[in-house]
Each structure stands twice: as C-alpha cells, then as structure tokens.
Amino acid sequence: MKKVILSMALVAFATVAFAQKKVVSSAEKNFKKGDLEVAISEVNAALENAETKDNPETTLLKAKILTKQYSLDSTNAMSTVETGRSALQNFNKAMEMSGNSKESKVGKEVNKEDLPDLPEVLRPYSLYTLKNQTFNKAAESYENEDIDMAYEFFNLMSEIDPTDTTAMFNAGYIANELGRYDDAKKQFITLIENKDYNKLSSYYLLIQIISAEDKNPEEAYKYVTRARADYPEDKTLSEFEVQLLLQMNKMEEAMASVKEALVDDPNNAGLLLRYGYLLEQSGDMAGALTEYKKSVEADPNFFEGNYYTGAIFLDQAREILAKINDLSDDEWEKNAPTMTKTAEGLYAEAVPYFERALSLKPDNVEIMEILFNIHSRLKNTSEVDKYNKMLVAKLGADWAEK
C-alpha cells in the first residue's frame, strides 16, 4: 500500500513538473510568434513555481521576451527604459545562476552576437540586441530633441556595457547640459578612472562642474592636479589651475603657475588676462594694463580682455579726477587743466575697448551706460545721443532715473 501511495505521489510530482515545463515551452512559442503579453504572463508564472523558478533558462527567456517588447516599443518613454532595465536585470540574473560563465549554455545565449541587418526570425534577443536597440533609441531621442530621454537611454547603455566609454561620455555630457550635475559627475569620474581612455574632455567637464556648480575649488583643484599629471602639455588645464588658485586666494601660487604657463603659451589670451588680474590685485596697475592689452592683441574678440582694458583706463581717469578735487586753489589753477586733459585722454583710450566689448555682447546695458557717460564727459553729442537711444530701447525713457 505504501508503495502505491509513493508511486502516486511521484506521478503527481512528475505531472506538476511536466505541466510547468509545458508553461515554459508555451511561453517560448508565444515569444517566437510575437504574442509577448501572453509569453510574459506565462514566464512569470513559471518563475513563481518552485519547479521552474531556479532554472536559469527560464530567467533568460524572460530577459529575451522583455528585450523584444523593449525593441518594439516606439514610444521611447520612461516606461520603455524601465522595460529595458528589467531585461538587463534578468540577463544578469541568468548569468549569476549560471556561475557567470560565458561558456555555459546560458552564457552563450546571453552574449550572442546580434548584427544590425539580421532578419527577425534569426535575431537572438540577447544582451547585444538590448544594447543595440538602446543605442538606436538614444540616437532617435537626441535627433528628436528629447534630450531628457536621450540621457536616460545613453545612461542605460552604459549600464548594459560598462566598458562602452562613448555611451558613458554621452550620458555625462547630456546630463551636464540638463543640469543633472551629480549624474554627470558619476559618469565622468568613472571615465577618468579608465586607464586606457582618452579622458581629457571628461576632466574638463568634471572640473567645471565641481568648480562652478559645486563651488568647491579645492576639490576641483585636486582633479586639475591629476589631469595635469596625465596631460602635462595641455594648455587649457594650465588656465584651469590658475583660475582655481585665484578662487582659493592663493595669489603667490597662482602667479607662479601663470608665469610658468605663459612661457609655453605666451599668446594665450586667458592666461594673459589672469596675469593682468594678479598684477592688478598686487597694486601694479601699469603692469595689469600691459597684460590686459596683450590679451586683446592675442585675441581682438576676447570680451573680458577688452572690458578689463577699458576698465583700467576708466579707473586711471577717475583717480586723476579725484586728485583734482583734492587740490588747493593755487594747485588747482596750476595743474587742473593739464590733469583734466590727461584724464580725458584716458577716457578716450577706453572707448574702443568698450565699443569692441559691446559689439561682442550687444545687449550689455552696463557697457552702454559706460559709453554714454564717457561721451557725456568728452562732450561727444552725437555719441551721447546714440547710446541714449540704445538705453531707452532697452530700459525705457526714464532709464537714467532708475
């Protein structure tokens, strides 16, 4: 009797196991036919059953079904990304269940090559399919100016293949454009840890984010130091170094750094400007003016160079006028006319620099006001009228009273 009962139990067990295998088999048939909703429902049922849930081939089948759903989803929305990420998780789980062996049956299926022009019936819907489709969706989203989704797909692509530095850089670059600075930093930090990758652009963007957005010049300077060790000949990194030292008020180090950089790059407008600024901060106004003028000679369309040069001329003129006001009556009669003429000459010298600066930034009302005031001082009536009209157009008729 016991043998009969045992035999019946074994038969029942085998029947249940067979039934579950039939569910998996049905899911696979529906997957191939394209009945994906039925297929995913069946494979989910199999993954909940004790007899089939621990079979890596069942998990692999779910990954394939999800990949096919993902490929066919043309909405390219966040729900699409979630489907793709779920497919990736199931591919990874199937690999773990197979001891992460690429030589195992499952490992070979997960990593099966997928060529772009492969017919539908031959498409493996492997991890490579998932990656290729993700690239297509990222590119489509970017071309359609859906930048948020372009980031999501490039980010997913970098998760699918952590060795794909192009996907990683694209994700970081777009995240930076979107103001998702933490996401961008994560990508760029990963890239600069890659020994074989040309990481110069990643250094640039990472340093700028940490300096400008995080407002952490000390941390940014650490990355500049690393970057300069990797790329000692790069001139932009020299500029970053000087800029960060200025932000940290390390004037002596900044001065030494900018002088060293100018030896190799004497016509670098940005470095000349920073050298001028350092000289200005030290009180050497004549030296500062010389360097600012050099920066404009190096690059006539350098806004900051033109603006700073004009500003030095203005400061020098105002300083002379202030001294005139402090003269005694006797000194005033003797020196005021000459000093006034000198001041007006300095105002005149400032004009072309501010005019060039305004041509580079035509909506800058501050420079319009500066030029209005200079020409008022020099009694250039037509120029005064010109800049007044520009200011009225920008700020209204009562701009001078604001």
> What is the second-level CATH architecture of the domain at 20-161?
Alpha Horseshoe
User: What is the CATH T-level topology of the domain at 20-161?
Assistant: Serine Threonine Protein Phosphatase 5, Tetratricopeptide repeat
Report the helical percentage. Answer: over 70%
- The first-level CATH class of the domain at 20-161 is given as Mainly Alpha
Q: What's the CATH H-level superfamily name of the domain at 20-161?
A: Tetratricopeptide repeat domain
**Rounded mean pLDDT score:** 90
The SSE order reads: HHHHHHHHHHHHHHHHHHH
Rg from alpha-carbon coordinates? 35 Å
What is the strand content?
under 5%
**Given the helix and strand composition, which structural class is it?**
mainly alpha
Task: Give the low-confidence spans.
Answer: 1-18
Question: Helical region count?
Answer: 19
**Main sheet properties:** none
* Amino-to-carboxy terminus distance: 106 Å
Question: How many β-strands, per DSSP?
Answer: 0
Shape: elongated
Question: Layout of helices and strands, plus pairs?
Answer:
Blueprint lengths: L1 H32 L2 H13 L7 H17 L5 H20 L7 H6 L16 H17 L3 H14 L4 H13 L3 H12 L7 H14 L3 H14 L4 H13 L3 H14 L4 H13 L3 H14 L4 H23 L3 H32 L4 H14 L2 H15 L7
Walk me through what this model shows.
The protein has 402 residues and is mainly α. It is built from 19 helices and no strands. Among the domains are: 20-161, Tetratricopeptide repeat domain (Serine Threonine Protein Phosphatase 5, Tetratricopeptide repeat, Alpha Horseshoe), CATH 1.25.40.10; 365-402, no CATH class. Helix 3 runs parallel beside helix 6 (127-143), helix 8 runs antiparallel to helix 9 and helix 17 runs antiparallel to helix 18 (365-378). The chain is elongated and about 115 Å long. Mean pLDDT is 90; it is low at 1-18.
